Please model this.
Amino acid sequence: MALESIESSSRSAFRELGFTDDVLDFGEKTLAELKDRFAEIDAVAEINQARVLHAMQNAKVSEACLLGTTGYGYGDIGRETLEHVYAELFHTEDALVRPQITCGTHALALALMSNLRPGDELLSPVGKPYDTLEEVIGIRPSMGSLAEYGVTYRQVDLKPDGSFDTEGIRQAVNERTKLITIQRSKGYQTRPTLSCERIGELIRMIREVKSDVIVMVDNCYGEFVQTIEPSDVGADLVVGSLIKNPGGGLAPIGGYLAGKKTCIENAARRLTSPGLGKEVGASLSALPAFYQGLFLAPTVTASALKGAIFAANLYERLGFSCYPSASEPRFDIIQAVTLKTPECLCAFCEGIQSAAPVDAHVRPEPWDMPGYDAPVIMAAGAFVSGSSIELSADGPMKPPYNVYFQGGLTWPHAKIGILKTVQTLRDRGLIDRFRV
Ligand SMILES: *Cc1c(COP(=O)(O)O)cnc(C)c1O
Model:
């Protein structure tokens, strides 16, 4: 088909989704300037595809690995091989990759609760950790928290310019400091996301003060954004969720830990039981999705990354502030946009929802959520419930009306979703001109 004819079919396919020409032109003009950045992302995906393939081949993945086990799951070759694949990929001694790990928070809680003992201290040298960890640690009092078990917590914030508070960290490390937790992604804060290189610097600095401390990295949303992982720059333990980047959109549940043998053994014994450790845990029918999802994860992450960059470029042109900005380098897949009014925040989320493959016909509404001090509006029409590697957005209904947007299993879908947000704002008269 000639290019012109593709362009006109694309126009009519997009019009059927409710797009108008001014929005589509705005999108195409913005995209034309992103060619070089997208080429870089494709190059990273290619390297990561090779890494995944190499790990699968080194671990000798075979057809038998795709069959699951039931009951105790003794001698589950598929489970054992998958854990070998993750260890190869992260260049670690061992890994724990299980459907019994219910989510990212569970994976992180498992890592912390199994590697800390009463009397130990946990330190976060990069500010407040992800919201859901507050109750795990006991920053907010909670039944079963680390605090209840006599594990204390210290935190050193990043400096206002985003740099490490080297002096503060040196002072905070003491004889009880057993584990350092570093969150790679900014999560829902406005601090910068850390590159693996910066994580490496921080780890070197910490090891100068205390060489035998365990360094754990919360790797959520960071996997495959670069061509190395935190375990390549000195982390002892790397932890994440399979319904984010490394599950490639196919994993229906699960979490992973990759790291030092003793750290993984501690976690396995906590997940199952002392004496049983990694030896039990039936994989049921989860393995094909875990393997295939990991295989797709480099290109799925690349799609989500392109979507985030496209969104920042569109919204900056529309006069909104974006974090990271349109031109900044990226180390995770989250895009925050300051939408300034409740109307714009709702329109954005409704736009994302209307572009979903599932539940596109429902309208998201702001709602009170446990742990939040304002109603939250969420858009998600995902194949896997709550999956945020799929196109999704949410934001608290309070000034400055930030939306946090992430995911997109394919680049065309991420593109359609973001353009839908612009279309919705435009249709409601919330934006008046397109600055291209
Ligand atoms: C998503 C996320 C978590 C928690 O994962 P859940 O699967 O939502 O429990 C923890 N840390 C960061 C940085 C995350 O992005």
